[in-house]
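Onboarding guide, step 5: your first structure request.
Type a short instruction followed by the sequence, for example:

Predict the 3D structure of this protein.
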Amino acid sequence: MEDQFRRRPRTSTTTCPRPSGETLAEQGNRIVLGINQQLAEPSLATRGTWVLVWLGMSPGNANLAYVARNTDGSNSFAVVVRGTVGNVTDLMEDLDVGTVVPLNLAGMPSPVPVAKGAMKAFTEVVTMSTAGVTLAQALTAALGGAQPNPTVYVTGHSLGGCIATMVAPWLQTLDWPDGKPNFELHTFAAPTAGGADFAAYVDSLEWQANERHYNVNDLVPQAWNNLEAAKQWYPKDTGPVADDAVKAVIGTLAGLPGPHVYVQPGKDDPLNDGYDPYDPDVVRRSTQDFMGQVAFQHANSTYLGLLGAPDVLSGPEVVIALPAGKAGAPIDIIGSGFTGQGVVVDFGTVPATKTYVMRDDVLIAWVPEGVGVVDVRVTSSLGTSPAVPRGQFAYGGPAYVVVTGISNDTGRAKDQVQVNGLYFDEDAQIWFGDNPAELLRYGTEQLLVEVPDPTIAVGKSATVDITVMSNGYSSPKSPADEFTYLEIPRP
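The system replies with structure tokens like these:
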């Protein structure tokens, strides 16, 4: 099982709009295609027996939810709330937890305070409609054709789980013409929506199950009652240990609730014990690696692995694109997931004039009119590929510069190391952090350099990024360009 986890999490951008733009209707149609494709896949944990009944999306695509029905004879239905489509830090900062507002549902003894941000998201989910049909109306109609005593699962990952803890109690307050169904609330990686009164109210309701599932190394479900504990993450031998910058970020996030104390509802279900799984590619003592590990620990694929479930179908991913050229010319794009429905390519915010898919990992795209340096991204019904350094295209050239690895990536001042990458020119200049290094030998994909003296200062990390500047480009930072000094004199 350990090998199963030692991988990069797949990026879930299924519900993001195309870089070149889509109408809300076009985006909604693509999302429906993608969800139906995932639900129909028999190799997944859903076993191909679920069908989409209704999908709703807020006008700004901030929130999304759908209703599904199981066709396996189990008489079960699901209300699924989507999590954030941004990164972990965005989730933390965008969810307004410094202000609380009253949640007042029918039949409640008295209102209970919840985060203002959670209330805003909840309100959008329960009021958004598709063709004039809301979530409650869609679920009522679906249950109208069910056998007696159906079960409704309410679930979500990340922010979706947080919203689910409000949506599920609200559903219990509604009038059900054919009798109240059995409700189960299952959240995954969810931050809290409210305080002790809110948690007590949720837990007091009648549930067939009410469980909070989480990875013990995930920062997000620690919000907003135990974030300070993350300053001690991760183990020293496999890292990445929090540096001063990371501790400052966590301290800032931990202070966002102000005087408000948040409490998690539901029965705790930790999915693991100890620092396993982890991403071995981001284990250095640096802010970049710490946040990379946080993203891995929170990823959908990590949670599916912990649950013993297969990973979902992967959307398109670009590994490398021909880096330079002119409008009208065809270029090769190498990656994966290119055989989904409706594959299209965008150069920045401009769609390719024509696209030809050769196989799942190779396609050809004809360059549209443009200027400058743009990200080449591929979209299908399963999502849009993330922007990656080796997937950039420069109109008219020269090719951009990227560092792909360091050998050796640890050492001392005066050591010789090899910097591997792409599109280096003879004018290449190299920095270790903010210190220039001497170039000993040049190659278009390999540079031999002498390690400069490190910067000595309080709070300075022993791990630095190696930056190469060539042809007017400086290489983007990534875990692949990190170098760790084994010895740094004290200031």
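Each response can be followed by summary notes, for example: Residues 151 and 423 are 58 Å apart (CA to CA).
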